[in-house]
## 1
Amino acid sequence: MKVVAYSIKEFEKEFLARANQKKHDITLISNPLSAETASYAEGKDAVVVFTNDDVSAYVINRLADLGVKYIATRSVGTDHIDKEAAERKNIKLANVPEYSPQAIAEHTVAMALALNRHLLESNEHCHRFDFRLNGLMGFNLAGKTVGIIGFGHIGQAVASIFSGFGCRVIVYDPFSTVNQPGVEPAAFDELLATSDIISLHAPLCVENFHLINEDTLRLMKNGVMLLNTSRGGLIDTEAVLQALESGKIGYLGIDVYEKEKGLFFEQHQHDTDKDPLLEKLMTYKNVLVTPHQAFLTNEALQQIANQTIKNLDNWQADKRRVDAFQQHPGMINQRAPAL
Ligand code: NAD
């Protein structure tokens, strides 16, 4: 199959090469997919994309005109793809439905520990030979209540780790049954009102856009720690900024940001006009921002590459398959609600 893969980082190449074994003719390019770069897909059967590529209706129509029949994303999340536009053009979609949930779960817990124990400030002080303990007081995780919103692959892995620390773990997920030892289901409002740490592990869709907003923040404990390694759009960042200012939020750890497209994964140090909201957030010592890197482990990258190649293999094996979703778990149900 002839393929062009967009937004390819140097570190991904060896994983893709190992997975592909020269089966597919893949052109790797570092540029993101956009209206301008769609022309690289001319003569290709498939394009491979990532979370911050532009897979809007406009770009999909352009890809269809160029003869593209398949789009595979190297991510769990599919909120960046206009699925209805793809269906209209009869373009098949696939994602990586599950890969090393531990990679994201461990990053989430690392953020909680770094925030709670002020590790970044402490390290900075020590590097200046300032070994005083002022401002470095943390709290024990043992005995604290951790509220997990979204109990899928990653939410379950996060629950296991926090349980291991001796936390009380409560979970809100309207679509999943909670049957993990030591984990209790909770109503949404109850979780917000009783959790010391709230961690988001739900996908972004129309229904939960800005799930964390002025109203839901009001229900939380004063000084709560809020963690988001899922999708930026789950949080109303303006409202969160106000909650940081008022002290409602005591700690914020985000690996994703609602305006990260065109910003994360790139060097913007010398921009004169930096994103003002993100700049303001980062003036707070109790805010930890990482650039959508929770997936970035050796194990996760190999699994992403393996599943992406498997998706291409499946398409190659039967290009006429109609109900791809039922036959291969990696296939996205294109009839899911549009985002
Ligand atoms: P998953 O599909 O296995 O689980 C998601 C769970 O959320 C499901 O159980 C679903 O029932 C639940 N859910 C849906 N809507 C909900 C709502 N409104 N409230 C509560 N629960 C809800 O997905 P996953 O693999 O666990 O991924 C979770 C999130 O992590 C996704 O947003 C994904 O895009 C993101 N992610 C981020 C990174 C990263 O590098 N930061 C990497 C992988 C995945």
Note: Residues 335-339 have pLDDT under 50 and may be disordered.
## 2
Amino acid sequence: MDNQKVVILDFGGQYKELIARRVRECGVYSIILPYQTTAKELAEIAPIGIIFTGGPNSVYTEDAPQCDAGIFTLGIPILGICYGMQLICHMNGGTVSACKTSEYGRISLTLEKRDELFGDIPEMIHMLMSHTDQVTALPGNYIPLAHTHDCAIAAFRCADQPIYGVQFHPEVEISEYGTEMLHNFLYTICHAKGDYSMADYLARQIELVRQQVGDQHVILGLSGGVDSSVCAALLSSAIPGQLTCIYIDHGFMRKNESDEVEAAFAGRDIDFVRVDASERFLKRIKGITDPEEKRKRVGNEFVRVFQDEAKKHSQAKFLAQGTIYPDVVESGKNKSAVIKSHHNVGGLPEDLGFVGVVEPLRGLFKDEVRRLGRMLGLPKSLVERQPFPGPGLSIRIIGEVTREKLDILREADAIFREELGRSRAKADQFFAVLTNTRSVGVMGDFRTYDYTLALRAVCTSDFMTCEFAHLPYSLLTKVSSRITNEVKGINRIVYDVTSKPPATIEWE
Ligand code: XMP
């Protein structure tokens, strides 16, 4: 991509993705990089501006994250937000101290100077403040730009360089004129051209794919998830007639899901291969109860089935993947402990004879992939789909997976999703889990000894942490009644009231 870029240097702030999104909404392409990125690396990327995010640390503590000091001499405009502002101050000879009165919430802010950063924003505005430290003395050649009642220096700039700091968060919605401020930074200070839009992105990627693959054939493993589906739709526009999509039905999909995926691609000029491998997968995990072992076996089998199918399409010279930007960052930088092995992030063996990999979504964030999917005419049910684990329902059945248990779970899960979807309750991910516990119940005059089903609904923005959703009792009552009446094999329903941590979202 030859768009102008803004780099967002990540100091651990919770709003980094939001900043990236706002910048893109202003028509400028942005990427998030770790705070350790060196001045040399940045110079090579040549962004038109750099934004330092907030972060949870205090700049004056020993192990507080610091950036490469060389960044301040690159001549590239910088905007530091919250911790980012304090770091600019600290690294350039100013002082940051603990606040006498911390500020949290929407605070009244007074702009002291008419600066390019503010343009014609009114003098008194309300911005989100959330800090326990503040700038108390500015570096020599810096000038204050704004204050609040409890924060004497709520914004500053370097007198002779385009380096700015703001204690407030212009990126959040509740900040008044936040978008205008970012817009001013991008257009007036960084001289952005506004050369980024989703339509441009699409047109450029189509062109790039055509250049890359020429008249060769491409193969794509389609999981039915958002990323691979959007990738397939994009490629079907770019190289009609040259794409084979292999959809492996491992038998662990939700009710009607495989048919829906097939239907979504029915009208496109692609070779859609649906492989029913459910027998194969069930056999591979027969008798397996350990969650990690289950995940690994499903993952390995997936690769084997894909390889077997790919061999039948040896004319394909390129492998397409729906890799998106967060995948790139995670696979390169994330050294955290393995809690669960996500089988769809492992990659495929290299002995399939492909000459190249096609990844047209590599620069995008999830919400942008969804937007692109809508532009490409994919149905809402696919584009807005909740995350669904690669191993599917096999890890939502605790203990051994059998066909009978899969059928029970599919029906119960469909009822829960239908009722929650119809209600006004809000949850970002929701599904049912078939526990391995059976208990005694009574139905009519008869004793039953059936499974306990757990309902899980969570609120989260990043799926790294979550809170359980506070679903109304009326909804839970209806779901419980419908499932116990309509699904044979379940006589008890429980609602999972744990957050993450300490639990995870999935049970296995
Ligand atoms: P956990 O259970 O780790 O899940 O809290 C976090 C999010 O990731 C989803 N998840 C997966 N997604 N492949 C995926 O693509 C997987 O193997 C996988 N396992 C969990 C989970 O649904 C939740 O949204």
Note: Residues 339-340, 342-344, 387, 389-391, 429, 463, 500, 504-506 surround xanthosine-5'-monophosphate (CB under 6 Å).
